[in-house]
Amino acid sequence: MEMEKVTAILEKKLPVENLSTQKGDFTKQKIVISFDNESDYPQKILIEQFGDKMDLIKDLVEWKQYVFYLNYRVNYWNQTAFGSVSTWKVEPVEAAKPAESEELPF
Predict the structure, then answer these.
(1) 44 contacts 61 by C-beta, under 8 angstroms
(2) What's the angle, vertex CA 31, arms to CA 29 and CA 34, rounded to 5?
(3) Residue range 57-86: average pLDDT?
(4) What residue segments make up the domains of the chain, in order of their start?
């Protein structure tokens, strides 16, 4: 399977959630990314990060463009499937640098 990556704009960082279950406590944070923004129907993905993986998104800035490398998960519980998307790597998109002029300075 080819690695899934998407270049997208970080549209929203939601607050960190502290949760408690029978198996223990954990934290998670959700972000919303958008891509195909020139289209009539831009696409959006909700990404969930858990525990120490939240460090990957803590310094991201809303409305900036990044490359997100995605993981997809499906879990079953009581004959119901639950899906989630997380990221294992995030890279900033570098702004294109203007080409240096080849003209002589005189």
Answers:
(1) no
(2) 170
(3) 94
(4) 4-90
